[in-house]
Design goal:
TIM Barrel, 265 residues, 40% helix
């Protein structure tokens, strides 16, 4: 719990500076920022024009910036177009940046990951690759294969939702070499869901730990000790009940704390 991150998608209705303030009040020690267009929710987007406000909030609250989200390798433009966002995030002290492969399969995706990794390294950032159920790189093994083909020192983001929605399990995660796993995003949900609900679930309808059927204790039980944890639980039902961002952040923190207590037993 020393570095549990409040990942920004958990609170899609607030701006970046407020995210750090709420993270501090709720007990988190870090947060992620969405620094690259298009943002899933416009208010979440952090831009260089906000640098001063975000830096002041971080300093006032004592909450650090962990991960930068999210950079699609599968775009028409050059990877170099991501440099301003990476420069901005690195200037705020970010440690990692997440790449995804969303779109149609393309033959140059390995080279594009290598280029992204080089750009991140230039700014002192570590590269993360997140397999997503709606993407081309879907499973953990897909992610490992892409990293190894690119010959880069990158690690996986294991999003519990995408792990389960691609047929994965704790055993699937345990089969991945520990050095490939760098970050885990915690959420919960039903084990089975209609295929056309997977997209909306991932961006708006996740459950908090303990509210669903995901084998979260088993997932946490096979993680290498170095892995950092983030909470990613956008939940439209709580928004509709008009729970404040702080109430939602606190509920997610408490639920994750209870989950980690179960894992420790």
């Amino acid at each position: 719990m020393n570095d549990l991150s409040l990942d920004c998608l958990t609170l899609p209705d607030i701006g970046s500076a407020d995210l750090f303030r709420i993270a501090a009040e709720a007990g988190y020690h870090s947060a992620s920022l969405w620094v690259q267009e298009p943002a899933l929710y416009p208010v979440m987007l952090a831009t260089p024009a906000m640098h001063g406000e975000i830096a002041r909030a971080m300093a006032d609250c004592g909450v650090s910036l962990g991960n930068l989200e999210v950079f699609n390798l599968n775009i028409d433009g050059p990877i170099a177009d991501y440099e301003p966002a990476l420069t901005f995030g690195a200037s705020l002290g970010a440690r990692t940046a997440t790449a995804i492969n969303f779109g149609v399969p393309r033959p140059d995706i390995v080279e594009r990951l290598a280029a992204f990794h080089a750009l991140c390294a230039k700014h002192g950032l570590e590269t993360l690759v997140e397999p997503i159920s709606m993407g081309v790189t879907r499973t953990l093994q897909d992610g490992v294969d892409l990293i190894e083909a690119a010959g880069v020192n990158a690690q996986l983001v294991v999003d519990c939702l995408h792990l389960i929605r691609t047929g994965g399990s704790p055993q699937t995660l345990a089969a991945i070499a520990p050095h490939h796993v760098g970050y885990v995003q915690i959420c919960d949900g039903p084990l089975v869901i209609a295929p056309d609900e997977i997209g909306p679930e991932s961006v708006a309808n996740r459950l908090y730990p303990g509210e669903g059927e995901f084998p979260l204790t088993g997932i946490l039980g096979v993680l290498p000790p170095h892995v950092r944890l983030g909470v990613e639980t956008p939940n439209q039902a709580r928004l509709q009940r008009k729970l404040s961002p702080l109430e939602r952040a606190r509920e997610a923190f408490s639920a994750t704390l209870a989950l980690l207590g179960e894992k420790a037993q």
